[in-house]
Amino acid sequence: MKVSIRPENKSDYSTISMVNDMAFGQEAEGILIEKLRKNKKFIKELSLVACMGNEIVGHILFFPICIKNKNIEYNALALAPMSVIPELQGLGIGSRLVEKGLAKAKKLGHKSVIVLGHEKYYPKFGFKPTSKYNIKAPFDVNENAFMALELSKDALSHVEGTVEYPKEFSEI
Ligand SMILES: CC(C)(COP(=O)(O)OP(=O)(O)OC[C@H]1O[C@@H](n2cnc3c(N)ncnc32)[C@H](O)[C@@H]1OP(=O)(O)O)[C@@H](O)C(=O)NCCC(=O)NCCS
Question: Fold for domain 3-171?
């Protein structure tokens, strides 16, 4: 069946939490999304749902973060969280969400995206370990799992610093 990707709307909120609960097998990510939605930096167009017919089967969120170096702050996006319901994983729905989300983020003028995730999955979209740039994670992490993607040419070449996530991420 055909999968379509579109921005979330108000009537999707509880289903998005449910899809995340099912995918992660816990409630933390759904709660995180609900908290981030109340943050004024939340970008509705970058909270995307994957639909089969009228049913939401996946979700992805890109949220503004900064890369901080003493007093200098560079704006970027974090790709997190992302979910596809267990019965439909491995069919390419997640990839469609990533591709559509990255294209939308680029169109909105965002310059780069950071992700903490599977080191074999995200490189196919162009992500590279942040160690290739001068970017550090704010916590201990496997070097290859913390990745960055430039949405415009050399967007990260002059960027140096540590990623700072909004407080909601550490509250869960
Ligand atoms: C991660 C997720 C959203 C990917 O969605 P999907 O629709 O299954 O993704 P696709 O079908 O496009 O790609 C599946 C591929 O990614 C790999 N993959 C993706 N995330 C992975 C992970 N966390 N661990 C291991 N493999 C992963 C799969 O093994 C598969 O590999 P293949 O293409 O070589 O067969 C989905 O698997 C999911 O909801 N997982 C549980 C929640 C989660 O871990 N979210 C990511 C962290 S925010």
Answer: Aminopeptidase (3.40.630)
